């Protein structure tokens, strides 16, 4: 395959082409008129009035099955620059070579394309390939034909995405340079617009992400206030009940002791007392009443524990870093999600395996880190709602839905928190996008696509740590939170 590249530049550069003389010789003679190349008139030369641009170049692809056309084009355009950037030429002598070169050089600015080569419409096939298959709409395409009857101008311009149509016999050196200048300027403007669009798109995405994070932060702050308020309201009556249980149980035990004493000294009570004792099943009552108090004590202790967890989780407004028990935050989050871990019509109870290492207190934003635990654990539960894969959570293969939480110290100054599930996992294409704002695989209305994006921001930006995810279809998913102690 012929792909000879020739770089044409000038020792001095200029923002525009200028012509060295007034001659305007035809560089492509027709089949019946003279020589195809005028070797005496070598083209134009740029005059310097701006500093050179040594990095960027204009790539021009010449596609023609006639070697003389390549030579003539080089002679016409050599020693020329545009906007301080030199020209580099790529050469193709067939449609096949042209397709290869434009695919390997997608930054080509201009294609000077012959129509009739190995087939009568070879050039047109190249146009279709560039626009339809490569989706390259930036490169400027100029058709140059010596056989206009094979590709009528009107139909070609209407049916093909080209930028100019020229007969080879009408192109003088000056006209060729004019066409090239116009095309390069157009290509440069397209790149500028696309760069500006990309910058605007990134700015818009950043703005949307910032706005979403502010909204989410406000929601979490409001949630924290509500949770703290509810916890406070529940805590007061719970403390009242819990504090009086001890005294109540003491009083009841005294009364039961009195009844037993009466029974010992008056084993045969009067008929009225005997009737009441039988109607209330006194022996069972005396045996079961202490058990009721034990149950009430366990229940109130459970409420106290829930309130404590709610208050721990609700510390979302604490802006300062402080030493925190990581395990306490995880336990608080699990308690809040307890109702989602229970069995339902679609799956059995989700098992939670905890392997906690011996961790010191970790300096972190406690409320924000709790939010990360909440987002990751919620996603794990969502994944398990869809079924389980064949991954190994521990040394055994669990067919039941399982979440595995493991903590450990790494390199003496870092803490790793691993949260894994044996769900169906994710494909590589999804895995690459999970931290993108607004990306979600959940149905419309079921997720905002912000949870993992915000979690990433909290871990990476606020805590200078790392948040990574590994997953594969059928192999479950594991998130790893890596933060400094």
From TrEMBL:
SUPFAM superfamilies: ATPase domain of HSP90 chaperone/DNA topoisomerase II/histidine kinase (SSF55874), CheY-like (SSF52172), Homodimeric domain of signal transducing histidine kinase (SSF47384)
The keyword Phosphoprotein belongs to this UniProt entry's keyword annotation: yes
Keyword annotations from UniProtKB, A to Z: Kinase, Phosphoprotein, Transferase, Two-component regulatory system
Pfam family, one: HATPase_c
Keyword hit for Acyltransferase: no
Region (Disordered) location: 31-50
Catalyzed reaction equations: ATP + protein L-histidine = ADP + protein N-phospho-L-histidine
Response regulatory domain span: 59-183
EC nos: 2.7.13.3
Stretches assigned to the Histidine kinase domain: 229-485
Residues annotated with 4-aspartylphosphate modification: 114
SMART domains tied to this protein: HATPase_c (SM00387), REC (SM00448)
Matching Gene3D superfamilies: 1.10.287.130, 3.40.50.2300, Histidine kinase-like ATPase, C-terminal domain
Entry's Gene Ontology molecular function annotations: phosphorelay sensor kinase activity
Stored InterPro entries: CheY-like_superfamily (IPR011006), HATPase_C_sf (IPR036890), HATPase_dom (IPR003594), His_kinase_dom (IPR005467), HisK_dim/P_dom (IPR003661), HisK_dim/P_sf (IPR036097), Sig_transdc_His_kin-like_C (IPR004358), Sig_transdc_resp-reg_receiver (IPR001789)
PANTHER family: HISTIDINE KINASE (PTHR43065:SF50), SENSOR HISTIDINE KINASE (PTHR43065)
Protein name, per record: histidine kinase
Top-level taxonomy: Bacteria, Bacillati, Cyanobacteriota, Cyanophyceae, Nostocales
